[in-house]
């Protein structure tokens, strides 16, 4: 006789309450939206940068959008590990992001300034979730957030130096 397969999914019991998991996932969804928006902006600028700094910026932007692309999966998978569906559409990201859409066709140094602002916005989103993750004793999310903060703050600093005289 064959054993019956269970089709029900067991309740998540990882030591974080459902309320906290839901709240953390909501914050991570905002981080995912900011990260995706930043990725698109950076990739767009990589394609469309012109001027005397073309090669330097083109290569720099490629390194940045590649790092951001890889981070998207890490953030989305953390949301899923917390038992929540990760947002995955432009409409979702548009509602959740804190980064304004780029208007027009910015010049090279305008691109750099826009990326500084978007990197800092993404860092603020990550930082805003730290205390909730800490209170919930959610070390994996705290680790993810501190790693993302390190990347976004360092990238903003490096970009910002290009705007100095």
Automatic annotation (TrEMBL):
Q: What is this protein called?
A: Dps family protein
Q: Which family does it belong to?
A: Belongs to the Dps family.
User: Would you indicate the residue range of the signal peptide?
Assistant: none
Q: What sequence ranges are listed for the domain Ferritin/DPS?
A: 26-165
Recorded hits in SUPFAM superfamilies, A to Z, give: Ferritin-like
A Pfam family that this protein carries is: Ferritin
What organism is this sequence from?
Uliginosibacterium flavum
């Amino acid at each position: 006789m064959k054993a019956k397969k269970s089709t029900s999914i067991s309740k998540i019991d990882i030591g974080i309450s459902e309320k906290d998991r839901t709240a953390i996932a909501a914050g991570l969804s905002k981080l995912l939206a900011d990260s995706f928006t930043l990725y698109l902006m950076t990739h767009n600028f990589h394609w469309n940068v012109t001027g005397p700094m073309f090669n330097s910026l083109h290569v720099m932007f490629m390194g940045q959008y590649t790092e951001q692309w890889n981070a998207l999966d890490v953030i989305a998978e953390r949301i899923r590990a917390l038992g929540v569906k990760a947002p995955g559409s432009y409409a979702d990201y548009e509602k959740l992001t804190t980064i304004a859409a780029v208007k027009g066709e910015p010049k090279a140094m305008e691109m750099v300034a826009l990326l500084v602002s978007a990197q800092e916005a993404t860092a603020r989103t990550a930082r805003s979730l730290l205390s909730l993750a800490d209170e919930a004793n959610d070390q994996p999310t705290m680790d993810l957030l501190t790693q993302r903060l390190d990347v976004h703050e360092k990238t903003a600093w490096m970009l910002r130096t290009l705007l100095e005289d």
